[in-house]
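Pinned message: reference record for Acetyl-coenzyme A carboxylase carboxyl transferase subunit beta
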Amino acid sequence: MIQNLFRKQKKYATIPSPQVKKDIPEGLMRKCPDCGSIIVTKELEKNLKVCKKCQYHFPMTAPERIASLIDEERFFELDADLSSKDPLSFPNYSAKLASDREKTNMNEAIVTGEGTVGGHPCIIGVMDSRFRMGSMGSVVGEKIARAANRASMKRYPFILFSASGGARMQEGVLSLMQMAKTSAALERMHRNRVLFVSVLTNPTTGGVSASFSSLGDINLAEPKALIGFAGRRVIEQTVRQKLPDDFQTAEFLLKNGQLDKVVPRCEMRQTLIRVLDLHTVGGSLD
Ligand SMILES: [Zn+2]
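Predicted structure (tokens):
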């Protein structure tokens, strides 16, 4: 009798998963993770992947971002064939690289090249968080350094979009060295008085936020982008203080003087053109 009583009790409660109910076929429709709206993918793409209802900025791939910036069909990719080795023989790293290459059709987490924006020739770099979370391995660092050197040499402005989880752990100290290498290349650019515009998108964290992405002559960011070095929990435990709710958002950084402007995506190209116009005299930078 007592045994029966126990047996009748349900061991586990069933919690209906809202996700199961609202699952929608991937491809045709997308669900906004912020406001929950269901958006036709084609409409979303027309609006540069920004939710019309709540202005949530969906992640953009590097090719999409480049297409949204440059004047028509004027982009020449550089160093497209550079790809990471596995210098530390890190378990599964080679396989993960191979699968990301296949998934993204890219060799690394950044695309660099030359293009014109509003008629201004520029060097452009765009990170892509689909590839190893946009982490900065030696190839990402090398491509940024080469792009900066090219910008110095040609005296073209350099526009760099960051989206990154930080250093790439599978490349250990070689990944961390990219912070110094990219910073040195940007310093040379600075001495040559060539403009560097850094645009931080969601998320820009770790070693990327602590090196090249914070070194712009002008630092812009997309709305609500997560930007920071260490995670909130780590900092709270270290400083033993509760951090503000908007801590590590683009808006918080703007308020505290670490950014020059938060620019919605639909205004990005025009804002960049304005910045380039202001810094270009008679077709050459001076
Ligand atoms: Zn939304």
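Pinned by admin. Summary line: The CA atoms of residues 135 and 168 lie 5 Å apart.
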